Amino acid sequence: MFVQRCINEECGNEFDLDERLYVCSRCGDLLDIERVGTDNRNVESLRALWRERLTSNEARDRSGVWRFREFLPFTENVDVVSLGEGNTPLYDAPRSADYCDVPSLKLKHQGNNPTGSFKDTGMTVAVTQARRLGMRLVACASTGNTAASLAAYAARARMACAILVPDGQVSEAKLAQALDYGAKVLEIEGNFDTCMRVIQELAEQSSLYLVNSINPFRIEGQKTVAFELAEQLEWQVPDHLVVPGGNLGNSSAFGKGFRELFGHGLTQKQPRISVIQAEGAAPFARFVTAQETTEGRADFVDEKHPQTLASAIKIGAPVSWKKAWRAVRETDGYVITVSEQEIADAKAMIGRDGIGCEPASATTIAGIRKLVADGLIKKDETVVAVLTGHLLKDTDYVIKYHSQTLTAPADGDEAHIRGTFANSIMRVAARPCAIESALKDLS
Ligand code: F0G
Predict the structure, then answer these.
(1) Are strands 2-6 and 31-35 parallel, antiparallel or unpaired?
(2) pLDDT tens, 15-35?
(3) Residue 152 and residue 85: Cα distance in Å, rounded?
(4) Which one of 347, 352, 373, 397 has the fewest CB atoms closer than 10 angstroms to its CB?
């Protein structure tokens, strides 16, 4: 049996799973979904069961999320809303490894989900919960990927869907997805934090179901990525897991997933979970640094004007910072920032591995490079970076980088981002000899 439990240890209030809550109704803190009582299932039989499901044709077994349903808060006969999410590749990335100055590096590519981002692993669970609660309208605030994902899952569940996005700050590809999947897209004047605040207020008063990562069912889905990753590594978890940080749901989910795996004896340890933020949108990194210099007495201060070209993580008031902080603290992880130039170059390098990702995801490689240079990741340690979104989510950024026209806001002005690894398009005459001469460096 599972309950919703307040994460504040002094409160710890518990609620039934069918109470439509986003925060504790007693103290206002975040909620976790927790198992009540112990689960005595044997480690080897669980591993064997999960592996066996890979060969099944049943929808729940084919989902990389529901395959691990023994750790999800639903009964066995749950009617899931699934698009076959999860089961994403874990790639070796030799060029990125060289760039970070480590012998090897693995990339867990969550961009290979049905709507092209990691959000799908959480959304399948949140929308399934919406169905269990009998909801008719689901909603979210979004920098684009949550919107695209929710729109798709709502369409599968035949639910109405409303999304709030900051006006002019979401990539076209993400908006295009949400529109095609039939969501009502509302552009709001302001930034993501404005959208998040308004939708939370509305969720208190109305019957819509909010599925941002403040919703603990989202985190339940996303935590299964830790299970899948551990399984791909034959249950040997890496020394370091590195994720981008925006609203901080993903880092929270990895923290919970790895804590549960370890608690159940499915793994022998937990990875250090490190979170990388863009310099201009880094309230969490600033908080963690302040904690270190004030012996734990710092308050969390929102970033009023977050700025980054990695629009997915242009967030100044992350709702899940307490859970992410718990994950980082429990695993001795690091929280650092990277510049716009570092993100852009790291992204191009991930592309050179034949993998690619959207800008926010590239904070990981930029961050690993820095952590290695600072001696915080050792060369003999194993490292996995989580790529959160697909390369095609933001092609405008890619084309500008490769044509040396990418600029980022800087102190009220615009700073040019150098295309260090730019690969520019050549205009060539329609003659074989012209083409041959254009290709002479390649052979
Ligand atoms: N990477 C990508 C591609 C994202 O879309 C997001 C968040 C993050 C990283 C950060 O993850 O918020 O869990 O720390 N995108 C949200 C959205 C906010 O609305 O799509 P986080």
Answers:
(1) antiparallel
(2) 999 999 999 999 999 999 999
(3) 12
(4) 373
